[in-house]
TrEMBL record:
One of its GO terms (molecular function) is undecaprenyl-phosphate 4-deoxy-4-formamido-L-arabinose transferase activity. Coiled coil: none annotated. GO terms for biological process: lipopolysaccharide biosynthetic process. This is Dolichol-phosphate mannosyltransferase. Residues 9-170 form the Glycosyltransferase 2-like domain. It comes from Bradyrhizobium forestalis.
């Protein structure tokens, strides 16, 4: 498939997910082939296993598969940002590289942004039937509840990796570590609507989580305060027209 003019870019951040590479790519292609001109961008976030080699082998078979590599791990937000900056599509969709996010929901997310006709800046997956332990689900509920009470972003689950958004909207957001967990609040801050799509969670294909326990489950207090401050300080964006002579 040609990558000259993709309309959609799929960004997958991974670290040490060698055994999950081939199954997930097969599912992504099954979900998107024949629907959009698309590219798949894997951001290899400093993997020390065979992740890079597995991606290299599949790249020989699929011309729309790209690999970006971080020399050392920068974390999930940094990996997503690298992928979005390199993306060629006007719409970017993301999902985690461990297989818990089902690519079958990508078309619904992408279509929600398209149907928004410029008003929808983000389509956010909302997990149902989560496969995590009871303790992890409890922590997630607490974290989401605290975040929503302070930011009032109207989102019950910001931790789901399945998202689709306009590339230009993402790139206008302030970048910081943990950005991916505050996307709904920050996209609303820019005046765009959020679409929500229920997605079914499932167990990871293989291995264990490679983005740390606290990185996945705790909202940093400083980040939360910082985003609250950004929202409070936002002024209306002036309506701009060019005056011709």
């Amino acid at each position: 498939m040609s990558t000259s003019q993709p309309s959609v870019s799929i960004v997958v951040p991974v670290r040490n997910e060698a055994d999950n590479i081939a199954p997930l790519i097969a599912e992504i292609t099954a979900a998107l082939d024949g629907r959009w001109a698309y590219e798949i961008i894997y951001v290899n976030d400093g993997s020390t296993d065979a992740t890079g080699e597995r991606l290299g082998a599949i790249m020989k078979q699929r011309s729309n598969l790209r690999q970006l590599r971080h020399a050392r791990s920068g974390g999930q937000s940094a990996a997503v940002r690298s992928g979005v900056r390199a993306a060629r599509g006007e719409i970017v969709a993301t999902l985690d590289g461990d297989g818990q996010n089902n690519p079958a929901f990508l078309p619904d997310l992408i279509a929600a942004v398209e149907k928004g006709a410029g008003r929808v800046g983000l389509a956010a997956g909302q997990r149902v039937g989560r496969k995590d332990t009871g303790f992890k689900k409890f922590q997630s509920r607490v974290a989401n509840g605290v975040r929503n009470a302070i930011l009032k972003d109207g989102t019950r689950d910001t931790g789901c990796g399945l998202k689709a958004f306009r590339r230009d909207v993402f790139l206008m957001l302030p970048y910081f570590d943990g950005l991916h967990r505050f996307l709904p609040a920050l996209v609303r801050r820019e005046g765009y609507d959020i679409a929500y799509v229920d997605v079914i969670d499932r167990p990871r294909h293989s291995g264990v989580s490679n983005y740390g326990f606290f990185d996945r489950l705790w909202i940093g207090i400083m980040d939360l305060v910082g985003v609250w401050w950004l929202i409070r300080r936002k002024k209306p964006t002036p309506e701009v027209t060019e005056v011709n002579a």
